[in-house]
TrEMBL record:
Residues 42-65 are annotated as: Disordered. This is BamA/TamA family outer membrane protein. It holds the Pfam family POTRA_2. The lineage of its organism: Bacteria, Pseudomonadati, Pseudomonadota, Gammaproteobacteria, Lysobacterales. Transmembrane segments: none annotated. GO terms for biological process: protein secretion by the type V secretion system.
Length: 536
């Protein structure tokens, strides 16, 4: 039904290049896309709004009492003690509501309550206004503003907490007035842009008017390991894959992560290792990675030709958050990578491609109670040198977006996802083609069923989580690619899936997809994709 560049496997070299190093959406290679798909297959829940990380203690104690006054009097002036937290204009506006008229004692208490409400509106929980015992002379009333100064700042928690890392991101000098509003913003930013979860407990200090802050940090496990088995490979190199992965966190105390993975099939071996860490106080993260794959065609029309291939890729990336609030997260991403792919038939080298890619992108997300969405758009400039073609350069734009929504109180959720690629060229190396089909795009088809220089895919899923450990869903997937000939081709599928966790250590995922469009005569009417994994 389809011809030319749309059929992965319809020609020798595209098939081989696909098995070596195929690009996915949003700049991820196939292995990363598959792993990312299964990571998000855990029982679906919308991201909850960020909770307030500041737990206020009672404000600094002061001598409390009522004004020494009976009945009413004309209030001529309200005098506030100096404030480092509330603007003078705010205090003057509150006083103006009561000055110049006859007031009762209850109205003075209302005035004090108005000042405390102004503190609360500003997100300040370590200060309050008091009306001390006093004599009223000439209609003047003094209101004391108690604004706690920082006594001590302590960082603690279970495990190896990077104390200095946290302290550098909390600007609360000892002896200065505690800015709980600023502390709240700093902790939200820290929690949303690192692997840490830090909350602040405030308590009265040892001296009068002091507030102590205890920062309680939750850190990831120092290390964890896992193994898995799935059938996300391709028929030419073996569908069944067996893999292992592991990671170490906090080796340098900068919220850094060293992670690696390896996957083996009958005709392929692929591995990846990467390290990243935070390098500035605004939590910009630098990462470096290297990946390598080897393949041997063991099935299909070319299995007797002794076809082998190797691919090696090196990458360096930098992610800088700019906005991190309870609802919004905005980051920019820069990446540069260099890859080399070779293909051999027996002892004859038939293809070698070197490519350099520079990518700039922006990532944003929004979360609220019951729904969340994400958006990514990247633009890549790619330079390739090939043995069978002259060197060339081209530009691609890859992007993705997703939306997750809770449906009232029904217990149901839906998720919609979309991925795309645009390009300024009509011919791209097969490793840079946009591919649809398989896990992470259009389920029910083999991986990379269609490919083209431009394309998109989308999916809609209806989920029913069960006990926050299991999830059943139905889905509809659709994808389309465009190229030289034919001008376009598309595929669609419907299906059902389930995933979950057992005993917190084991997880499973199963997708059953039914293709709605015939691509090859021997296409299955039902395709099952699964992964079973365990973690320690």
């Amino acid at each position: 039904m389809y011809r030319g560049m749309f059929l992965i496997g319809s020609a020798l070299l595209p098939c081989l290049a696909h098995a070596q190093n195929s690009s996915g959406t949003a700049g991820k290679d196939t292995a990363q896309r598959i792993d990312g798909y299964y990571e998000q297959r855990q029982p679906l829940q919308p991201e909850r709004p960020v909770v307030d990380p500041v737990q206020p203690a009672p404000p600094p104690a002061g001598q409390r009492g009522l004004a020494d006054v009976r009945g009413s009097f004309v209030l001529n002036e309200v005098r506030f003690s100096p404030s480092a937290l509330l603007p003078k204009a705010t205090l003057d506006a509150i006083a103006a509501r009561y000055q110049g008229r006859e007031v009762h004692l209850a109205e003075l208490e209302t005035l004090v309550a108005d000042v405390n409400a102004a503190y609360e509106a500003a997100g300040i929980s370590t200060a309050r206004a008091l009306l001390r015992e006093q004599s009223i002379n000439e209609g003047r009333v003094d209101v004391t503003l108690l604004e706690g100064t920082l006594g001590t700042l302590e960082v603690t928690g279970e495990g190896k907490v990077p104390v200095r890392f946290v302290e550098r991101r909390v600007r609360q000098p000892v002896g200065e007035v505690v800015r709980s509003d600023r502390l709240r913003d700093e902790l939200i930013y820290l929690n949303r842009t690192t692997d840490l979860q830090v909350r602040a407990l405030m308590r009265p200090g040892q001296a009068a008017g002091q507030t102590d802050i205890v920062l309680l940090a939750e850190v990831p496990d120092r290390s964890n390991w896992g193994v898995f088995v799935d059938n996300s490979g391709v028929e030419t190199t073996g569908r069944e894959r067996y893999g292992a992965h592991g990671q170490f966190w906090g080796l340098a105390g900068i919220s850094d992560l060293l992670a690696g993975s390896v996957a083996w099939s009958r005709g392929g071996l692929e591995g990846r290792i990467g390290y990243s860490g935070i390098v500035n106080t605004r939590n910009g993260r630098v990462g470096a990675s290297v990946s390598r794959s080897q393949i041997n065609i063991i099935d299909g029309a070319y299995r007797a030709l002794d076809i082998t291939g190797e691919s090696t890729s090196y990458g360096l990336d930098f992610t800088q958050p700019w906005v991190a609030t309870p609802n919004w997260l905005l980051s920019t991403i820069a990446n540069v990578s260099r890859s080399n792919s070779v293909s051999d038939i027996g002892d004859v080298r038939v293809s070698e491609v070197d490519s350099t890619t520079v990518t700039l992108g922006v990532s944003t997300g929004y979360r609220n109670d019951g729904y969340d969405w994400t958006f990514y758009q990247g633009v890549s400039r790619i330079r390739t040198d090939e043995t069978l073609a002259e060197g060339r350069a081209f530009t691609t734009a890859n992007g993705s977006t997703s939306w997750t929504q809770r449906i009232g109180s029904s217990g149901l959720l839906y998720r919609a996802q979309l991925g795309w690629q645009f390009s300024n060229g009509d011919f791209l190396p097969s490793s840079n083609l946009f591919q649809v089909g398989g896990i992470g795009s259009v389920r029910g088809y083999v991986r990379g069923t269609l490919s083209g220089v431009k394309g998109y895919f989308g999916s809609v899923e209806l989920h029913r989580p069960y006990r926050q450990a299991h999830d059943v869903y139905v889905f509809f997937d659709h994808g389309e690619v465009r190229g030289d000939y034919p001008t376009s081709a598309s595929i669609s599928s419907v299906g059902v899936g389930l995933n979950g966790q057992l005993a917190k250590r084991y997880s499973y995922s199963l997708d059953l997809g039914h293709p709605l469009d015939k691509v090859l005569q021997d296409d299955d009417s039902l395709r099952a994709d699964f992964r079973i994994s365990a973690r320690w």
